Amino acid sequence: MTISDHLTEAQKSRLFILSCIALTVTAMTFGIRAGILGQLGVDFGLTNEQLGYINAMAFWGFPIATIFGGFLYNAIGARMLIWLAFVCHLAGLGLTIMADSFWGLMISSLLVGFANGSVEAGCNPVISEIYKNNKTTMLNKFHVWFPGGIVIGALISYAMSNAGIGWQWQIAVMLIPTLVYGLMMLGAVFPKHAEDIISTSVNFKSMFTPVFIFLLVCMTLTAQTELGTTQWADKILAGSGIHPMVTLATIFGIMAIGRYFAGPLVHKFNPTGVLLYSAVVSTIGLYMLSQFSGPMALVATIIFALGVTYFWPTMIGCVAEYLPKTGALGMSIVGGAGMASVAVWQPIVGGWVDVAEAEATAAGATAEQIAGIAGPVVLESLVIFPLILIVAFAGFFFYMRNRKTASSEASAA
To answer: Would you say the C-alpha torsion 68, 72, 76, 77 has a positive or negative sign?
Structure first.
């Protein structure tokens, strides 16, 4: 009997729902922050590079929390990690609302990022445990609420900004679902640790394998392809002629639907095939976004969304399925590496935006034309990330297929 067998279906369902709500809050912080980035720049007199550093603090908080949570998961369990997320969400969002300087935004963004990482560190292994026989599919369904939450956040930001409502109130909206998942925690029953749970030392040793290191490196590229692009929606996706928040909502709306129905795709092509598909399609979509405007930009947006849909949950699913001895720590380290990568690249991408906008201005572009000139230039630079992944995942696909064939032949012999 496994530790999840002690839970009723109702208890499992409650855990899954509260995890989804907590992830929705996490995602809304991305969507709303992308929507208010321009307002923050104006109100605080910040350059795009400085805005990149503020974004980076949220992304740095995430890997700090996931790595911290991964090491402590076996000792304190998911319950304490999700409570930590709740407290940090309340504190981080509250401090963001009260921020009156660049450094205030930096500190509050770090706290929000830490809360987001704690959600990931606590919820991923719980879902992997309670749905032991269907890990990748249920992790995809759980991660529906990352794009789903970004759609919610983007639409809220779009509506409130158009209504002239300040960014502080947009941040305050996120306190509502935060309180909901906090209240649900009060009656939640979590899996108990099994006597045969894999120790943290075994988790750590199991990470020193070629497959884990490969997934770790690739996660830095998949995360940057997805989040490094969309986090700058207001700056680099505004030149398509479509409102950047509408573009963002379209991307993540498609991602939410795709992840919900991920099961058949994962079973048909297996995780390695899904990753290769994702790399090819996201490369095509991102390149098209850098080249087209108007109706074709919408087509490019849809293709890009179909490409990045399965990256994050399938990478986590690969760790859970192919490297189960790495445990919660393995999933947390890989997730943390993805967010750390985005954190490193945020100020760099911000610098690219500054340079592209300066060059457009020097060429005589009007304020309305700058986004249409600078955005595609930055998007062209971002194409390199999924392009590298095509080569990497093609090799991974054939490696895992050959390994499976060799294993089958050995079993038959």
So the answer is: positive
413 in any annotated domain = no
Within a domain: residue 412? no
* AA identity, residue 186: L
The rounded distance, in Å, linking the Cα atoms of 177 and 22 is: 8
**Chain-centre distance for alpha carbon 139:** 13
pLDDT score of 195: 40
- Exposed, middle or buried: residue 55 (CB in 10 Å: 0-12, 13-18, 19+)? buried
Residue 139: both structure tokens together: 């992790």
- DSSP-derived letter for residue 363 is T
Whether the CB-CB separation of 250 and 302 falls below 8 Å is answered with yes
CATH code: domain of residue 143: 1.20.1250.20
Q: How many CB atoms lie within 10 A of CB 42?
A: 9
Considering its fold, how many domains does the chain have in total? Answer: 1
Contact (Cβ atoms closer than 8 angstroms) between residue 190 and residue 126: yes
pLDDT tier for residue 267 given thresholds of 50, 70 and 90 = low
Q: What is the mean pLDDT of the segment spanning 184-208? A: 76
Q: Residues 12, 130: contact at Cβ < 8 Å? A: yes
User: How many other C-beta atoms can be found within 10 angstroms of the C-beta atom of residue 390?
Assistant: 16
Query: How remote is the C-alpha of 266 from its chain's centroid?
Result: 19
Torsion angle in degrees (nearest 10) through CA of 255, 258, 259, 265: -140
Q: Does residue 203 sit within a domain?
A: yes
Q: Could you tell me the residue range of the domain that residue 123 belongs to?
A: 9-186+198-407
Q: Is residue 357 part of a domain?
A: yes
Query: For the CA atoms of the chain, what is the radius of gyration?
Result: 21
Q: Tell me: pLDDT of 309 over 70.
A: yes
Q: Three-state DSSP class for 365?
A: coil
CB 304 within 8 A of CB 282: yes
- Burial label, 210 (beta-carbon count in 10 A; 0-12, 13-18, 19+): exposed
Cα–Cα dist 111/244, whole Å = 26
Place of tokens 């089958």: 408
The per-residue DSSP string of 327-338 comes to HHHHHHHHHHHH
pLDDT of 78 strictly over 60? yes
**Residue 365 confidence (pLDDT):** 79
DSSP 8-state assignment for residue 192: P
Which two three-digit tokens encode residue 396?
A: 């991974």
